[in-house]
Every structure is written in C-alpha cells, then in structure tokens.
Design goal:
The complex is a heterodimer. Chain A is α/β, with parallel strands linked by helices. Chain A has twelve helices and twelve strands. The chains are: A alpha/beta, B alpha/beta. At the A-B interface, strand 3 and helix 1 of A face helix 4 and strand 11 of B.
C-alpha cells in the first residue's frame, strides 16, 4: 500500500500522502455509468468495494441544483479513513436526466488523519485547494497519490460562533455524537457549517473512528454515526422504523439531553452563549488523548476555575490548590491546564502579597503621619497655665 | 421465509429483521415481499433481470409488467402490493412524455421491486408468484468485477429460478465489444456461483434478450445467428457451460430523435413513439421453463 506515508517538507510542515480516486458516471471504452473511473494504486480492492457502496450516485445529493455538494467521512475495514467530497458536475453521461454526481475519494491512514485533527473538513479544504474542478480526461485510470502540506499551526480554522437560536439543537446533536448514538438530523439550513461546528466541538480523540455526512441522501449503505439530510416525510417514517436510528428535527423544540458528557456539553453551551466558541473548539482540538466523560469534566472544571483565579481571594486559592494540584496529571491537556493553574495561583498569591504589603505600608505610613501630627495638638491643661 | 411476529426473515438474504422495518437491514430488499407472500405454501419464485448499465432493463421490465397487467398473450397478472406497480408507472409515464425514465441509482434501497401473481389462461390456469427486481447495472458490474461488493445481487442470483440477461444489440451491431465482454463476465460469474461437476452444465434457464434491436433488424430475423456473429464470446460461454439458454430480439422504441441544448455537448436521446416488439417472448419462454 502506497498511501499514507508522511514526510517532512523542507519548510518544516508535515506532508501527508492521500490515496485518491474519482467516482462518477462516465462513458468510456471500458463501460458506462457510475464507477470508480480512476484511482491511485494504494486503494485496495476491499476499500474500493466499501467506497462503491457508499459513494452517492444518480440523484443522491440532497439538493437538486448545479451547486449541490456533499461530504462523507467514515472508517474503512482496513483501518484507514475515507473522505468523499461530492458535487454535481455537468450532465450525467447517459443523458437520462439529472446531474452527474462527481465524488473525489480520499483515503488516508489514521495517523495522518490525526495530524489533521481527525477533521474531514480540513481534508476537504486542503484537497479542493489543490484539485479544484479537476476531472480526469482520456480515460486516465491511474492517479498519483495527493500530497497535502499540513501547516500544523493552522490545521483548522474555527468558524463563527453558532447563533443563540441554534444552541439547543446543536447541543442535543453534539450529545448524540459524543454518545455515538446513530442520528439523522433533518431541516438543517446550513448543513456544512453545522456539521463543522459539531466536529470542532467534539474532542479530537473522540473524532477518531467517527462516520458522518452532509448533503447526501440517507440510505442503508450510508448508515453513519451522524447524517445531515432531508428525506421526504414518507422516507422519514420509513427511516424512523429503523430502531437503531435517532431522527432529530433541527427546528423542533428539544429538551436538553441528560448525557454522560454533561460537563463538556455545558462548557460548549456556555462558550457559545458567551460568543467564544472558538476557544471551546481550540480546546477540543488539543484533547487528543484521555477522553472519558470524567476526564473531560475535570478539564472543563479546571478551565472554569482558571477564570476565577485572577479575582480570587486566598481562601479560594487554597481550595483550588487542594482540589486540583493535589492530583497528578500525566500528559496532555490536563497537565498543561494544571501547570497553567499552578502558575496562575502563584501569580495571584504574589499579587495578593503585594497588595497586602502595599496596604500594610500605607497603613504604617498613615499611622506614622498620625503620630507626627498628634504631639502639637495634644497639650495638657498644666502646660497651658 | 417467516414472519413470526418477533422478526421478519428477508426473502432475499434470510436476515432476521424487526417486524416494523420496511427494508431489510442487510440488503435493503423490501420486507413487504415477505408479508405479501404469507399466503403461499412456499416462497415465490424469482426471475432476475440483469444487464450492463444503459442496456434497457428498466424500460424492458416496465413495459413487460404493463403488458402483463393488460393481459397480453393470454397472461393474467395481479400485482401484490402497490409498490409492484411503481416501476411500470414510472416507465409508462416517462415514455408517454417522450422521455426515457431516470437512471436507476446504485443505492440498493432505491431499486424498484415487482411482485406479481401470473398465470396463463386455460382450463386449469397455473399461478406463479414472481418477484422481479429492477437492479442498477452499475451495481451488477461492480459485483461481477469484485464479488461481495453488493451481496444482494449474489443472494438474488442464488434464489433466482431464471434469468433474463439483457444485452445491448445496437452497440454490438456497431462493432463495440463492450456488450459481449459484459455478458461474458456475467456468465463467468454465474458459472463460479453454481458449482457443478466437470462436464455438467448449469441448469438455470437464461433468456438472452438482445435489446434496442430496432437498430439492427437482422437481429429479429435470427437472434441466435446474430448472437453467434456479434456476441461470440457470450455464445461460446453459454454453449459450454449452460444447458438452457435461448436468444430473443426485443425493441420498445419505434423511432428515436436526438436533442441538444444550444452550446451543450450533451446529446439526449428522445423516444418519439413506442413500438413494442419481442417483449413478451422471452418472458413466455421463461415461464415455460419454470
């Protein structure tokens, strides 16, 4: 297998090699219709089978217009990750109505996917910047792997904060995603944005192995963890009969979930309300290990307590020290946060010491001033005689 | 097949499904087939329509079912379940507007399934329950190229009592080897599926339907000769490994026009009117073989 080898570019950025393919309807000497018309050598037969089953064909993008797009990301049985980027590209080859659904297929190792934060939108961004509207011509059957330079300090550009009116359904969907409850979300107007928020709000370690899609019709072949699509009412009824699938109407009034990852959900919700979703996304990107509900609860608690430190009194500082700094954190985000907390507490203590010292000095000065003034005014009656 | 209230066993892949599901969770075949066959002593028979993409499967099957519904050639056909009428409605409606029906998607849960009870008139009519799915040609090609891509096709073929293999005669007559190669691959796939002893032939009846034969009228004169001349690989394979193969010519379009939008490279075929020919014969032969 050729794909997935990571090299370091001269610039110092890491370069990941993606195996790629193109699935579309094509008329060529080898046949007509939807198939993998070209692929790089590293995609195995088993991977091709899975891709052919999942890639959208005639009329299977949710939108009807020429600008329809779709994205799917799912793990393959080989252990690698497939990312499908679909769009309408001209008329279908047999001209029997409808657009040709062109799908760029990208396959990468999980290690390389980890370098990109397990974010399929980053893969899409980097890929489309290179490929654009490229469609192979002259029946090119073999493609070269695609090298993507991966600037690690800018792997994921956070989006603007979700609108306040969307926070409830967003948190409900996030809860389902974290619990890996298979969910179909209907009625989402800006599906790419919403799905990207959901991915960015999910701790990076929990994104591993996740399967999701937007813009592609729901089918049994695309039974992903999270699907954003708009089936017809009849189709929704049929889909809802699938006992394993949870159907969520984006615009329906939903109760806030009582889920295992409650603390993390609360943290994201607060971040959204305060207009700093990007901070939650940044933190989520950093959490690449240790992702149980308890560890996330601990992380969010430390973050919340860090915010209190700059205005905390000594008693609170002692409580925080006892609560957090007594526990050893091995690696990763908890360790970094505890180090920050330790530094912040020390700085605050120094600040308080300085304040108290200044107050003491001021008090002493005031007392000294008082003492200087008092002898001239405090005459005894005998002295006056 | 069983529908014991706790689970429904799929007619195609024998997977147990919960009773309220509409499609099999494994192969996406409609579970209504099971419910509609409850009154039978055994399972309905299956006749699979196979062929390359754009060979004419949807149009052929749609017209066949419509002719059966109209009691052509003395047949009586009763659809079991409203879903069985979807395919013929799609085909007839589109053709009446001078349009070919849309391409069958590769996604298995979008395929049309027809379940009909059919009999030939007579003193003692014999009723046969037939299930005939309209399968996407690309799915067939993908399965043949890489077995287990679409297991539903494997399962369908295992359960089929007969096959109608549609081959684009117009392409073949024009010198293209594509239809012959596809048919050869299809027959090889069937050969590998049905293990037989050396020297034995596979007994499943196969009707090779040479579609779009209006392009090559000589196909109607002698379909066997046409196949031997233009689809020689298929001809030889069929002769070597299959005991019951018959060749038929078929056509549904009376005249065809070609339309382009201004400045567009795409040429759209427009069926100006239908003139059905050779649609019933392959089916009649198949029913006689069952």
């Amino acid at each position: 297998m050729d794909g997935g080898a990571t090299v370091i570019a001269a610039s110092g950025n890491e370069v990941v090699q993606l195996d790629r393919g193109i699935y579309a309807s094509d008329r060529s000497p080898m046949g007509v219709g939807y198939r993998l018309i070209a692929s790089s050598a590293g995609i195995t037969a088993e991977e091709k089978r899975a891709i052919v089953r999942c890639a959208p064909s005639q009329g299977n993008l949710c939108e009807d217009g020429p600008d329809a797009t779709g994205l799917a990301s799912f793990p393959l049985s080989s252990g690698r990750q497939a990312v499908l980027l679909s769009r309408h590209a001209g008329i279908e080859a047999t001209a029997r109505g409808g657009y040709n659904v062109l799908t760029h297929v990208l396959v990468l190792d999980q290690d390389d996917f980890a370098l990109i934060g397990w974010d399929p939108f980053v893969v899409a961004q980097l890929t489309l910047a290179q490929l654009g509207d490229e469609i192979p011509t002259n029946s090119v059957a073999r493609l070269e792997p695609l090298p993507l330079a991966c600037p690690l300090d800018d792997v994921s550009t956070p989006l603007k904060t979700p609108d306040v009116s969307l926070i409830k359904p967003f948190i409900t969907a996030l809860a389902a995603l974290l619990e890996r409850t298979r969910t179909l979300i209907t009625g989402v107007a800006a599906a790419p944005d919403v799905l990207r928020w959901l991915v960015q709000a999910t701790p990076a370690a929990l994104r591993q192995g996740l399967s999701l899609s937007y813009g592609m019709k729901y089918t049994r072949a695309r039974q992903f963890d999270l699907v954003l699509a708009d089936p017809s009412p009849t189709e929704i009824k049929r889909v809802a009969s699938d006992g394993d699938l949870n159907v969520l109407d984006w615009h329906a009034s939903v109760q806030m979930p009582n889920a295992s990852y409650q603390a993390w959900l609360q943290f994201v919700q607060t971040s959204c309300k305060e207009g700093c979703f990007h901070e939650a996304a940044q933190l989520a990107n950093e959490i690449t290990t240790e992702c149980s509900a308890d560890s996330l609860a601990r992380v969010t608690q430390i973050v919340a307590d860090l915010e209190h430190v700059p205005t905390a009194e000594r008693e609170l500082l002692s409580d925080l020290t006892l609560e957090h700094l007594g526990h050893a954190a091995s690696i990763g985000v908890p360790r970094r946060l505890l180090d920050e907390l330790k530094t912040a507490i020390a700085d605050r203590r120094t600040q308080l010491d300085e304040i108290e010292a200044a107050e003491r000095e001021a008090a002493e000065q005031a007392a000294a001033d008082q003492a200087v003034e008092s002898p001239s005014t405090s005459q005894t009656p005998l002295d006056c005689l | 097949m069983s529908d014991n209230g706790n689970s429904t066993t799929c007619l195609i892949c024998d997977t147990a499904n919960t009773p309220n599901e509409a499609l099999c969770k494994e192969c996406s075949a409609p579970l209504a087939l099971v419910q509609d066959s409850q009154s039978l002593d055994g399972e309905p028979q299956m006749v699979s329509i196979l062929g390359d993409s754009n060979a004419g499967k949807t149009v052929y099957l749609g017209f066949l079912l419509d002719m059966l519904s109209q009691r052509a050639n003395g047949f009586e056909a009763v659809p079991r379940g409203a879903y069985s009428v979807d395919l013929q409605q799609i085909v007839i409606s589109h053709m009446s507007y001078r349009m070919f029906p849309p391409k069958t998607p590769v996604e298995t849960d979008e395929w049309n399934w027809a379940y009909y009870q059919i009999s030939r008139g007579g003193k003692k009519p014999k009723w046969i329950d037939l299930v005939m799915p309209d399968v996407a040609g690309e799915a067939i090609a993908a399965e043949v190229a890489s077995p287990s891509t679409f297991r539903i096709i494997q399962n369908l073929l295992h359960k089929s009592s007969g096959l109608l293999l549609l081959v684009d005669a117009a392409l073949a007559a024009n010198g293209s080897a594509q239809p012959d190669f596809f048919a050869l691959k299809m027959m090889s796939y069937l050969d590998s599926m049905f293990v037989t002893k050396r020297g034995q032939k596979i007994n499943m009846p196969i009707a090779v339907v040479l579609t779009k034969a209006d392009y090559c009228p000589e196909c109607f004169d002698n379909p066997r000769r046409f196949a031997e001349a233009n689809l020689n690989r298929l001809w030889n394979m069929a002769a070597s490994r299959f005991a019951r193969v018959e060749y038929f010519a078929s056509s549904v379009v009376g005249s065809l026009a070609y339309a382009t939008a201004g400045g567009d490279d795409v040429v759209t075929p427009v069926p100006l009117h239908t003139a059905l020919r050779g649609v019933m014969e392959p089916f009649e032969w198949m029913v006689g073989q069952l």
